[in-house]
Specification:
Blueprint (H helix, E strand, L loop, with lengths): L25 H16 L4 E3 L9 E4 L6 E12 L2 E7 L2 E10 L2 E7 L5 E7 L1 H13 L4 H4 L6 E3 L5 H6 L1 E2 L1
Parallel strand pairs: 4-9
Antiparallel strand pairs: 1-2, 2-3, 3-6, 4-5, 5-8, 6-7
Bound molecules: zinc ion.
The site of zinc ion has 6 residues, from helix 2.
Length: 167
């Protein structure tokens, strides 16, 4: 496994559509393992393949309940609303108040190629939505409803900075 370099805005890979994975090869499995290691080292609660420069539909998430890897993830159901501070490893200087669904169901493939469905609420739901957005070239700042609700990280009090999750 290896820690990969996290791509930061304005690299165009972050703004482009990632491709569906046609076959889960050794290379895809290595990418996913490296993404997990990179996410934990950052630290962050999620990472999408474009954030390490790979235009492929692969995400990893760990919101405190253990690692989840999904290939070709799709949000199948979403309910409720949550509003909270969100940061992104690819936009390290910004934090925004982002409205997301409170609960989602995501399906995709595991690294063995088996279909899996995962349900998440709270932070896990937020992380899934943030990562699937990355696969479509969407950054969280686009989801902030009021431009006044985006701050520079260094403008926030240390106590607030600690609460911000980077995804
Ligand atoms: Zn992000």
């Amino acid at each position: 496994m290896a820690i990969r370099r996290i791509i930061v805005y304005p690299d165009p890979v972050l703004l482009s559509q990632a491709q569906a994975v046609a076959k889960i090869t050794r290379r895809v499995r290595r990418l996913a393992r490296d993404m997990l290691e990179t996410m934990y080292a950052a630290p962050g609660v999620g990472l999408a393949a474009p954030q390490v420069g790979a235009r492929q539909r692969v995400i990893v998430v760990d919101a405190g309940e253990g690692p989840i890897t999904l290939v070709n993830p799709q949000i199948k159901a979403a309910e409720g609303k949550q509003i909270g501070l969100e940061g992104c490893l690819s936009l390290p200087d910004l934090v925004g108040e982002v409205r997301r669904s409170a609960w989602v169901v995501v399906s995709g493939l595991d690294l063995g190629g088996k279909p899996i469905t995962v349900e998440g609420e709270g932070l896990l739901a937020r992380a899934f939505q943030h990562e699937v957005d990355h696969l479509d070239g969407i950054l969280f700042v686009v989801r902030v409803q009021d431009p006044a609700c985006v701050w520079r990280t260094d403008e926030l009090k240390a106590s607030v900075q600690k609460e911000v999750v980077h995804i």
